[in-house]
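Morning!

This is the sequence you dropped in the shared folder:
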Amino acid sequence: MTQEAGAVRRGRRSGGGAARRAERTATRSEFSRFITRNVPDFEILNTEALEIIEANAETVLQEVGVNFVDNPAALALWKDAGADIDGERVRIPRGLARQLCATAPSTFTQHARNPERNVEIGGRNLVLAPVYGPPFVRDQAGGRRYATIEDFRNFVKLGQMSKWLHHSGGTVCEPTDVAVNKRHLDMLQAHMTLSDKPYMGSVTLPERAEDSIEMSRILFGSDFVDQHTVMTSLVNINSPLTFDSVMMGALEAYARANQAAIISPFIVGGAMAPVTVAGTLTQVLAEVMAGVAYSQLIRKGAPVVFGAFVTSIDMNSGAPTFGTPEAAQITLGAGQLARRLGLPYRSAGSFCGSKLPDAQAAYETANSLNIGLLSGVNFMLHACGWLEGGLVSCYEKYVMDADQLGVLHKLAAGVDISANGQGMDAIREVGPGGHFLGCAHTQDNYKDAFWRSGLLDYKPFETWEEEGARDTATLAAQKVQKMLGEYQAPAIDPGIAEALDDYVARKKAAVPDAFV
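The structure's back. Tokens below.
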């Protein structure tokens, strides 16, 4: 079914004059299409190095193996596929995992409830999604505190209004005021109703993944979900070389339903992988191949993403470090390995270890974001809002990072060498000793010639001082309040909204609250 046909089909299903009136009167926030790179990827490894790492990864799978814990069904599938099973250890013959990976698609479309915001994951594309997972939030007014469902909804609203962000994300913060066994319902409902961008599903238990699928069927229609990918969700590997039953249960649910999963080792170099770049890349590749291969045993052709979350470690304190050259080398190398495997690639983000949205945060984040662009990342989780090593979702840093994502769009576009881009008419018109401010070429192009920040201050010193000598974090705090004050929810069919309310209410009422 084409995108247009899908939109028509969903329109007919949800239908109704109320929905059409809501759509006509809704405020449409400005947004940019996902990035398609017109610049080359940076390749840090030569062919010989890549072949060595690939051979070593096959050796790891065959000789060392991986553990699939508390999952007899997975062991049975692997045995039927030809792997050697010893207890919970799975040893995969050389070449088998790569052969199984070959059935996973190299690109796929994730559909949004607003078809204009569908994203293409893979190829030359880059999709940007916000921070994921922090239990704490920070803002200038309230400082550092445990996140609430109100914070969660605020971040979804900021994501909906952020021009350069293509995806609503998943657990943008962990709402600790809602029971652990029920908060996934509130989080999903927020993404589905407060945003019309694509979103991620729950992975904290297999049944929560099933809830995500059921709620998506309410939003899109069962037939549409059965035939299209509407979720991309994060499945972490317990590095080193361990696949736990919780994450694998979520992967199984999503693969069976043809919903996408990012299969991502969680690597802290020196703690969960070797301290060397080549050693870490070997482990990352082995883990990803085993995870992707398993997804294809569940359902051949299920969409998956080659994930690599990689950070180094401070050998003095043991704390993870971000924006480092070693992490950059691994991110670049993993991109090459993903392309050779023919899979979409997830890595990088607005990573930093700073406690505040300060210079350290800016340096580390800029390093990571730019390396993500150069490494060929297709899906960038944590693209904005990350603080304190991923423990904190920061309001100010969210809008600071989201503003800088516009730079990635501009860089990725490459250099215009059309007749207009060459600017020869301008050079001829101005000639020696003149200036270009008033020439026809400048007048024709000034609106779009340069990327313009929606946040940073470029005013003269005197004006800046008169306006309160505001630093960037202060400007960001003011922008957060302005955006939340101007937010309007995108239109949604009232019948669908009511059905989501009913599903969430019934699921919550069925079990008592649990906070562990």
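Headline: Residues 321 and 436 are 46 Å apart (CA to CA).

More detail when I'm at my desk.
O.
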